Structures are given as C-alpha cells and as structure tokens.
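# step 3/5: fold
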Amino acid sequence: MSPVPESTQAGETGVGSSAEAPSGVLTAPNRTYAKAAASESLEDYSLRYAPLSFRKWTPYVVATTAIGGIAYLADFAIGASIVLTNGAASGITAILAAAVIIFVTGVPIARACAKYGVDMDLLTRGTGFGYFGSTLTSLIYASFTFIFFALEGSIMAQGFLYAFGLPLPVGYLVSSLLIVPIVVYGMKALAKLHVWTQPFWLILLALPFVVVAIHNPHAFGQLGSFPGTDGAHGSFSWHAFGLGMGVALSLIAQIGEQADYLRFMPKKTKENSRAWNVATTVAGPGWVILGAAKQIGGALLAVALLKLGGTAVDAVEPIHQYAEAIKPWFGGATVAVATIFVIMSQIKINTTNAYSGSLSWSNFFSRITHRHPGRVYYVALNVGIALLLMELNMFSFLNTILGFYSNVGIAWVGAVCADLLINKPLGWSPKHIEFKRAYLYAINPVGFGSMAVASLISVLAFFKVFGDGWTYAFSPLIALVLAMTLSPLLAWATKGKYYIARPNLVAGPEAGEVDMAEELACGTCGTAYERPDMADCPFTQSLVCSLCCSLESQCHDECKKPGAAVGPVLLGTPQVHKSV
C-alpha cells in the first residue's frame, strides 16, 4: 500500500475536509491524516475493508487470537449469579438454551466477516441497516464493549484487593491503565499476547475444576440440586428460566468482538478450506461453547464456596471462587496463583474490549462528525467510560444491566442474522456485502426498522409494561423472534430497493470480472487501497477510498442524485487529479 502523505497541501482545510476548485473538482490529493490515523499498524483498518495484503496470518493464528479474547471471568460471575438467583434446574437450562441461540445466530455472521474482510459495523451497513442506520448499532456495540470492560475491570480490581489490599477505586484505575499500552498497537500486539499466553491460561482455567473433582466431588451433586440462595427454586420454573436466559443472552454481541479478529482471516482457498472452516467456526460462534462451560463452572465454584461457609457476595466474585477451589493443592501459594490467573484473564479480555470499542467509536464518530483523529484516541474514550462505570459500582447490579442490554443487542444481531440466512438466499437483498457510503441509502428500513421495533417492544416488556409474567421473563426472546420475522417481511415488502443506492462500478457485481486485490489510488488522499475499499465519486471526479468518502462533508451525497456522472476516468485505474 502506498504511504500516506504527511505534509499538508496548500489550501487544505484539515482532517476530514476537502479543498475545492471553482469547478467543484478536487485540485489535488488534499486530505492528510493525523499521524495516529495515518499509520495502519495502529489503525488496523479500523474503518475499512481489511485488505488481502494485510491478512497474512494463518487461520490458526487468527482463531487463537480470537479465542484468546474470551478469556474473561465475567462468565464465572454471570453463571454464578444466574444459578444463585434462579436455582440450578432453571439456571443451567437457561445458560444452555442461550448458548444454542448465540451459536446459531453467530455462524452466518462469523463466516460473512471472515469472507468479506469486514467488521461487525461494516457488515451491519450491508445487511439491511444503511449507512447512517448502522450508526445506532455502532453505539449499541460500543456500549457492549465498555459495559464488559467495566465488568472485567471490576473483577481484576477485586483480585488486586484480595492479593494486595489495594482499595477498589484505586484498583479500577490500575486495571484500566494496564490495558491501554497494549491495545494501541492493535492486531499485531494482540496476536502475540494471546498466542503466547493461551496454553498457560488454559491450564490455569482447568485447574480449579480438577481440584474440586478430586477433593470435593460431592460439589457436583450439590450444584445439581441447588435451590437458589432464597431456597425457593428447587425445581424447574419457566419464569426463572426466561429471566436467566435473558442475562446469558446479553453476551450475544460478543460475536462482534470475534468478528473484529475474523476479518483478518486469509482468503479461503482449496488448500486452506478445511482449516478456514474450522477456525472460523471455532473462533466465531464456537466461543459460546467455552463461554457456557465457564458459566456453569462459575456456578459450580459458587455453590461449593457457599457450602464451605462463604458469603453470597464472595460466591459471585471469581477471585474468591478460584482461590477457595485451589486451596487444597496450593495452601500458602493460593493467593499468588489465583491472582496471576485473574490478572492474566482480565488483561486478555479487556485488551479485546478496548480494541473493539475503539473500532466501534471510530465508526460512530466518523459518520457523525466527518472527522477521524485515529483509532487510538477512542481507546482512551472507551476506557474512560468503563472506568466511570466501575467507580459507580456497576458490579452490584449486574443482572439488571445485562438483562436490559440483551433486549437491544439480540434485536440487532437477530436482524443481521435474518438478512444473511433468509433475505440474501431468497434474493431479497444483494448477495454481496456493500459497506461504502457512496452506494448505500442513509437508512434501510429492513434491518433498522426491524431492530427498532423489536428492541422497543422487548424493552417495554422488560420494564413490565405488559405485566411481570411471561412477556417480562422472555423479553429477549421476543426481541429475537420479532427481529428475525420483521427483517424478511420488510425486505419482501420493499423489494430490497433500499439496500443499494446506485451501481458499484468499481468492485460490485456491475464491475464485472476484476482483480479485487488490485490497488487503486484515492483521488483525495493519494493513498492506494484494494478495489473493495474504493468508490467512484462524481463530486471529485475520481475514485476515493471508503474513509475519505465517509469523511467528506461538502458533497451532500451528490453521487446518489439523479443524473450524477462520474466520467470515463473511472473505467480504468484512475489518475489523481492535478490542479487546473
């Protein structure tokens, strides 16, 4: 890829703007990016298609990195909370049911992101939401990352308190600051972190369950018959099942974090087909298999701790669950081993939360402000919001936060999944994923409308507007069913006409047989990107890259107006416009 120009041309008005000649045609490459945004080693193509030239990792490395991102111990706390509140019969069944839903909806999303080299935000744009319609989902996804960063940071702070007596408010700050230096360097640093730590982490993860199986085997039977801390949930209850499933389903947006890594999967070929399929499945929807196992494991450790005289507060804190479980083997070294495991786990997951959050905030603000100072600035924003949540002690009302969030998150994922599984095979939406502003309507009622209606009704149900019975308990399931039903209905009713605003002559089906790996120069910034990242622009009378297209504030979507012409320059490799 050609280097990004660092000097500013005469007449440039700053990042995210374009200087314009009297004719309305750009006089020269005139957009330069701040240093943080210009370096793709920091940016990781945060707002772009991930080019084939960058996707040099093997399927194994990409999958290991993605799986490393689910090292979080929130699963221990979530599983314990579900079972302690709803009893084992309803709680464990709820965890397993949620896992099935998350796996099924995650399969098409993971495969699409890996195939097309796009993250969850770009995928959402092309699966029924439109360019500005997906802005809302970027905010939803950003919320997921900082909510779970705060949750995981709280768990790390609990570890610091347990091991070093560090007050929780100070621990929250330390657990946040530890993450930033790693996340700044993106995929290259994260890949090394997860590949190197994964074997050791897996051993430590299995350790407490081995110890419990040997020294406290009756704990498994105690879990199966546990009636909840109130003693009133000894048998299965549909109401408790629904409430527990709602909490577990809050994790459905985790597929977005998996997609942030899967977009770097190498191109699928005959030679790597099997490895590609396995890696995409394991690192995509497959995360929930380990996730559900950790939730049930957390419930096991929590019940065991209670039976040994621990408090209900300690029982939902992973550091206490883990330490009590391994104590028979490690004695005086228990604190050290438990602290190492907790800190390692939380660094692995919160680097992912901060990384994914920076991508989502970048997408959100670039569309709202037409400016992009660089992904690294949004790392600080995401971590700062999470730190505020930690200081407000969000851990104490965990179930309420996650139960509410699941209603919105599942409506979004359900709408995207329905488009991939139903609309595209039936021909009601384009077969390919179009993510560039130049070719998308601002809002597509198919995905955006189905998500909005589904989330609104389910949130009302969650807040007991329709009573505190079935609709309240199963509000996330209402969101899923409505989103997956409304999406194909709206696609059929609108005949799919709001997906594509105009033909893509550069890299879409209308371009014919072209080399997608060919690099073309952007007429605005002068940098070369692969064809899928480029768009033909009537405003500049040249090709522009997807980011320059997003940041253009003066064109007012001229390309989508009737009669807009792009000129013959776009039929071949474009030449950068010179001064006239």
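# step 4/5: annotate
The CA atoms of residues 120 and 256 lie 5 Å apart.
# step 5/5: archive (pending)
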